[in-house]
Specification:
- Two copies of one chain form a homodimer.
- Helices cover about 30% and strands about 25% of the residues of chain A.
- The longest helix of chain A has 23 residues.
- The first copy, chain A, starts with a helix and ends in a 23-residue tail after the last strand.
- Chain A has a single domain, classed as Thiol Ester Dehydrase, Chain A (Roll), CATH 3.10.129.
- The interface between A and B is large, with 105 and 105 residues.
Amino acid sequence: MSGTDAVMRRVFAVREREAMDAATEAALAGLAARVRELTEAVVHTAVDPAEAAAVAAEVAALAARLNAARRAEPPIARIGGNGLVRQLANPVSGALNPVAPPVEIEFTPDGGVRTAFTLNGVYEGPPSFVHGGVSAMVLDQLLGAAAAANGTPGMTATLELRYRRPTPWGVPLTATAKVSRAEGRKTWADAVIAGPDGRTTVEATAMFIMPVGAHGDGGSSGDVADGDAPRG
Amino acid sequence: MSGTDAVMRRVFAVREREAMDAATEAALAGLAARVRELTEAVVHTAVDPAEAAAVAAEVAALAARLNAARRAEPPIARIGGNGLVRQLANPVSGALNPVAPPVEIEFTPDGGVRTAFTLNGVYEGPPSFVHGGVSAMVLDQLLGAAAAANGTPGMTATLELRYRRPTPWGVPLTATAKVSRAEGRKTWADAVIAGPDGRTTVEATAMFIMPVGAHGDGGSSGDVADGDAPRG
């Protein structure tokens, strides 16, 4: 049993997680949205230390209420009946994750993907601009979605980012991504973030490797060599 | 007045933000830690929709209390008297930001930087592993700290990531970074994340460009050409 087999077992184990029903998903999406707003309030608040401590105590009590019933792993929902799942608490695009902006990704007629989003002060890196690592996170997610939209999903193997100019927070941004090439289990995609004036702020290129066993092929295309393993 | 001048004015405007006192910083760090725990509880909770909605209403009330007094921009603290500031709510390393893990960075005797951290399910990408974009975000922050530790801080110009194997969540991780070369206003640094077994999971290389006017030189080294602008 290779280490790669063990990795694949863990990746595909997501299919065995219990799927969440729509009513619970909607309620938790609402809860996550409120915690997102609370997070923004924490970063910008100017209340005095006593009030901050009082609010902190109430927050702890609410966390205890939520922890009264817990799932071991983040929630999923099924997509159709083919074993595909949606990770509802993805840290970039998951409506159920308070740390996610969240970035909502849509398909474009040209076969690519696109998102329109605004980041707030929570995501500030250089003063008045988005943290470069946050831009990287959004682009990684979008590039992965482009690979999936192309029918060639995979795990990120390489990601290259070129920061052309600062990305401002608090204004509408757009990002697009599209596959440029797919060869065997490897897929390459390009993406950009653009500011309100349409000028590119960050460019990215990624290469994804499709895990053996993806699309339910049961690994029939052979094992994955160690130097060519699926990546995080 | 070039666009670059405008960017630099905004970047250096951080020095004019009102610095936060230590008592307020401590209280808000405690509050952010509780909201971080609440976020983890949201991602893992299995309460029913009615309870989720009830908690959401309470969270909204707490956000309103914090928003009763607001600052326009994320908080800073002064470091010494030389105009340098710490951004307390940095989305990767800021103790005052609930979306930050947070990653605490320390200097190493060899002139580099290091961090030991554990990511929870909030940061999951591929099932049971850390999101590749989250690893990118941590490495960007750490590489930037390495450039600063070298006395040559700058804004990220390029960032290249190579995902060698998946990075697991819920276990102790370490990451290190160090400058490999500095030339004029450009600085190159390398970094890695390693799992509990010491094996590298992600490698990264970044290039930073020091903004003109950094270190209070008032831009005396000349303007920044458009093709060579400071980046986000």
